[in-house]
Amino acid sequence: MQPVCSWRFMLFQCTDALVTFASFEFERLVSFYTDLLNQKPEHIISNVYAEFQLPSLKLGIFKPKPTHYLEFEYSTKSKISLCLEVRNLEDAIAHLTALGYPPPGEIIIASHGREIYAYDPDGNRLILHQSEFKKGV
Predict the structure, then answer these.
(1) Contact 87/130 with Cβ under 8 angstroms?
(2) pTM above 0.70, yes or no
(3) Which of 29, 86, 99, 118 could form an SS bridge with 126, CB 3.0 to 4.6 Å?
């Protein structure tokens, strides 16, 4: 059975979902996520689009077409964050630091576990989260 997404009076079938980042530095961002996720993109169109398959989510990176540059060039910082559940927060922090993008702050203790904020090369916010229920799993 296909999942169904509905909102008020609109009804349609959803077959998949993904999050995408626009980047003028396409190759740099694809390289960062290749290293961060320790995997190559599942689908790639050279210098245009790359897609990574994560558990329960696809992450796409695309280079905006010249006709859309203004839409992305002057946009304010997004309120959306890419949250990655990790098994060991310290290992994830060490990995980001080794990639040259150390988290600027300290680990936060939240009601649902521990987390830290970090940023990719384009300034997109990452939340690395270790659930209190999955420590050492």
Answers:
(1) yes
(2) yes
(3) 118
